[in-house]
Amino acid sequence: MEQALKNFFLFLSKNKALTRAAKKYGLRFGASRFVAGETIDQAIKVIKELNSKGLEVTIDYLGEFVDNEAEAIERTNQSLEAIKAIGKEKLHSQLSLKMTSMGLDLSDELVMKNMRKILNAAKEHNLFVTIDMEDFTRCQKTLDIFRQLKIEYDNVGTVLQAYLYRTERDIEDLNEFEPNLRLVKGAYKESPEVAFPDKKDVDENYKKIIKLHLLNGNFTAIATHDEAIIDYTKKLVKEHNIPNDQFEFQMLYGIRPERQLELVKEGYKMRVYVPFGTDWYGYFMRRLAERPANVAFVLKGVVKK
Ligand code: FDA
User: Fold this and answer.
1) Count of domains for the chain
2) Pick the catalytic residue: 75, 182, 286, 287?
3) Do the Cβ atoms of 248 and 241 come closer than 8 Å?
4) Which one of the listed residues 60, 132, 135, 279 is annotated catalytic?
5) Would residue 265 count as lying in a domain?
6) How far apart are CA 262 and CA 180, in angstroms?
7) For residue 291, how far is the Cα from the chain centroid?
8) Strands (E), the chain
9) Is 182 in the active site?
10) Residue 301: inside a domain
11) 20 tagged catalytic
């Protein structure tokens, strides 16, 4: 039943008509639990509050699978605005983005132009940018572009997903760049031809790649809400004397907020991924797919309206 619900929400996350409707009707159905607002001003308010509690942030202007140049330019401009606002307000925040919203599916020239604009502005404000990893069909291209950008910029990192068979190899291949990587389990619906179908295998591979990347001496963001993985990381860094400034934990805005604060109190760096913008629908559906128990929460929100 749980797997069926998961697949259902991942299916819904790609529905274009529902995406358009969601944009039109604004943040609904409990989405504001996971999304900081529709405007940069609302997001800034949330960042300030998180920063005041000792939490670091990475902000993401929501949007994905853009299919025309004007929209890709508009998305790039929104990210540039976010960078300026973070710089002006001197917030403890980095930037995350999806390259499909910068034109990845349209042309290499367009996506490179937009990424360079963003990385130049980010450099000016001393800000780090993480390229989120999207579905498997875009993985190779994302890594190719990341390699190219990493030669030109030192303020860029990307994400690798533990559910993909290829990831262990990617960690080794990227090691020559000494990259700052965010490691995650993976949020998209992938075929067993490319990804471990069993959660148990994903969790084992996750531990394996965390160890590999940390012992290679690289900065590692462990982005998970899974207590077993957090425990594993704590033991690993202790055992190998890995300093606290070589890694950080990351969680999504609205998920396990109390645990986020506890980890700060325990002396760890904790970064919260704060999404904002009108294009919240796909992101929200993936959060429901991760934990169908959240559907009860959503239904309560619908009933209340
Ligand atoms: P898992 O799903 O096994 O959950 C472990 C426990 O965490 C659950 O039992 C529950 O207690 C709690 N939990 C998890 N999800 C919850 C939810 N939605 N609501 C409430 N509780 C929940 N993916 C990707 O493919 N590309 C990317 O670029 C990113 N980027 C990214 C950044 C950051 C900062 C995070 C935290 C995550 C991502 N992800 C991602 C998503 C990631 O791949 C994964 O889908 C989610 O983090 C859920 O997996 P967990 O590791 O939390 O474990």
Assistant:
1) 1
2) 182
3) no
4) 132
5) yes
6) 24
7) 17
8) 56-61, 93-97, 129-131, 156-161, 181-184, 220-223, 247-252, 270-276
9) yes
10) no
11) no
